Amino acid sequence: MELSGKLIFLDECGSTNDEVAALAREGAANGTSVVARVQTAGRGRRGHKWKSLDGNLYLSTLVLPNVPSAKLSGVSVAGVLGILRGISAWCTPGSVLVKWPNDIVSKGRKMGGILCELVDTPTGTGVVCGAGLDVKAPKLDEPASDEPTRLDAIGLEEVASTTLPQLEELAEAVSSGIVESVGAWADAVRDEDEATGPLASLAKEYCARLAYMGQRVVALSHEGLLLATGSLVGVDDWGRALVRDDDGNTQRFTPEQASLRPVGK
Ligand code: BTN
After folding, report:
1. Are 39 and 49 contacting, i.e. CB atoms less than 8 angstroms apart?
2. Which are the contacts of 24, defined by CB distance < 8 A and separation ≥ 6?
3. pLDDT in tens, 3-29
4. Which atom of ligand 1 is nearest to the CA of 50?
């Protein structure tokens, strides 16, 4: 897999994911990225809007992982781990975590996330990895997302351990992190058999970076209904969260079924 495509800077666009998808359909290389100062139609997972005002990072990166389609769901976890690696130069180790399945959180608040969308390219299925990262401290009266079960927001500048670079440098670091992480994951997947879950090679890093690991959580439906209470004991190789209740029974939840919150919050 080619390691670096070009990084294009736009002042404004609808969604950087759409810009990169259009380039991908025309045969753009692995790693081709678009970053925008402002998005007018930014979107998040499950059809939510992604508020995209000046000052935060809106970046989409094309990856061409060349793995079986049944394994492509792993790209979002490889991608979010790549974003964490990308920003690691400016953060104290362990200060920024992944909240299952792939939200970026710090101090129990949401800093960003990744929206992965498949795209047909001349050389096969590609994935547009859209990274949204709050850099500025949020204005508390302006929620970043319209999700009913959303967390409060936090900006990278609130937890940075050193002076942050310009958004262009941050974008370069994050897109490189995504390309490298997805590339290493894809190489591992191609060596695995069909029955192996797509996250097998990432399990250790994912669990080490997972918020609420070993803590009591509630699993909520996306409408906010309580589905289970128990300890988060891990994520299986297919990306399902494992929640063990007080009787020792473990329930598995897909990201389509549930989101997690620490008990009492
Ligand atoms: C989430 O719901 O947590 C994922 C949000 C992803 C937002 C980013 S911003 C850059 C890219 N363009 C979009 O329209 N969405 C993604």
Report:
1. no
2. 32, 62, 119, 121, 126, 128
3. 356 999 999 999 999 999 999 999 999
4. 7
